[in-house]
Amino acid sequence: MNFWDASAVVPLLLIEPMSERLAAELKETPGMALWCGTRLECLSALSRRRREGTLNSTKADTARKVLADLGREALIVAPLPDVWDRAERLLEVHPLNAADAMQLASALAWCQERPQGRVFTCLDGKLREAARREGFRLFPE
């Protein structure tokens, strides 16, 4: 099981340049750990594309169904007080926004603060660098 950031989940919902590679990784390493806010971040991305006119309603509906299916199968990390504490520390040491700090804090909670050998699946550059500095292996490499 890998931890998945929203930036890596969206290409599982829509056809994007990294979609095939990420789908192959999910098939090879089944199971996802997700921050509890990932669903909302993904829905935000879908809504933005609908407003911009780059995603039609049929594809948006399909993407929402795929997201719901992924969420039913995923291990969801709840926003417990220790996750908030981790996120606050991460904001002090990495150039992250609040949601990305919560993503990374949730990943650290998921692996019980032992990120060595654990995979953080993410496409966002700043978040990838912070996860690497915290000790995670990254996918894609």
Average pLDDT metric: 97
End-to-end distance: 16 Å
Please mark out the parts with pLDDT under 50 across 5 or more consecutive residues, or reply none.
Answer: none
- Class by SSE composition: alpha/beta
| CATH homologous superfamily descriptor | 5'-nuclease
Task: Explain what the structure shows.
α7 links the parallel β4 and β5. The chain has a five-stranded parallel sheet with strand order 3-2-1-4-5, with helices on both faces. It has one domain: Rossmann fold. The chain is globular and about 40 Å long. The relative contact order is 0.19. α1 crosses α3. The chain has 141 residues and is of the alpha/beta class.
Keywords, separated by commas or semicolons:
141 residues, alpha/beta, Rossmann fold, 5-stranded parallel beta sheet, 5 strands, globular
Give a quick precis of the structure:
The protein has 141 residues and is an alpha/beta fold.
Question: Helix and strand layout, with pairings?
Answer:
Elements: E1 2-4, H1 6-13, H2 19-28, E2 32-35, H3 38-52, H4 57-73, E3 75-77, H5 81-93, H6 98-110, E4 119-121, H7 125-134, E5 137-139
Parallel strand pairs: 1-2, 1-4, 2-3, 4-5
